Structures are given as C-alpha cells and as structure tokens.
Amino acid sequence: MKQLNTLYKFELDKEQKAAQALKAAELDYQQNNERLKSVSEYRLEYMRRLNQRSLEGIDSATYSHFHAFIAKLDNAALQVKVAAHQAQALVETRKKQWLEQRRKIQAVELLRDKKLAALQVVANKQEQKMFDEIATQQFVRRVRQ
Questions:
Q1: E strands in 4-83
Q2: Most exposed residue of 88, 102, 109, 113, measured as fewest CB within 10 angstroms of its CB?
Q3: Stated pTM of the model
C-alpha cells in the first residue's frame, strides 16, 4: 500500500506540473491573440488615416510611406498569426498530456481502492474470526456450567 501511495503522490505531482504547463500555454496563446488584435486595430486605424489624408490631398512620398508602414504591419500580423497558431498547437499538446496524466492518476486511484477493499476484506475476516472464537468460548463456558 505504501508503494501505491508513493506512486499516487508522484503522479499527482506530474499532473500538477502538466496543469501548470497547460495554463502557461493557454496564457501564451491568449497573449498572441491579443497582440494580433492590437496589430489589426492599429492597421485599421492607420488605413483610416491614409484614407482621410487621401481625401485632403497627399503627395506620393507620404503615400508611399503610409503603404510601406502598412506592409510592415501586415508582416507583423502574419508573424503574430504564426506564433498564435504554434501556441494553439502547444495548448492542444499540453491538454493531451494533462488528460493522459489524469488517466494515470485515476488508474492509480482505482488500484488503491481495490487494495484498500482487499485489506478491508481481510480485516473483516479476522474480526469475524475473533468474534466467532469469542462466541465459541462463551458457548463452551455455558455448556460446562
């Protein structure tokens, strides 16, 4: 039973670490999505500025500058999308690892429960044997009297 308890504690520790890794991966994924949203909003705002400046009249150098910066924003958005995709894949991997660890813990818990039940059966038999012996001794005493 001691070995099962040690194994159980070991597996619980691994499960806790897997849960922390999953939480960290989820946080990274969320942060990447927030970055993507920020870059997209900034790009949209910059496009509005370009549109407004175009209505007022804009020289070609300024127009080229706007387009070059928008291209940089598009590139940044693409990089963040790639990072978010990788973070999402890591979340899925970590989730599978955590679920697998939960299954291991459940298996050890099942083994512990079976072992405890078997030990209880043995203890109950010993207790019943003791009661039977007491009852037999009391019967023998009554018969002798």
A1: none
A2: 113
A3: 0.72
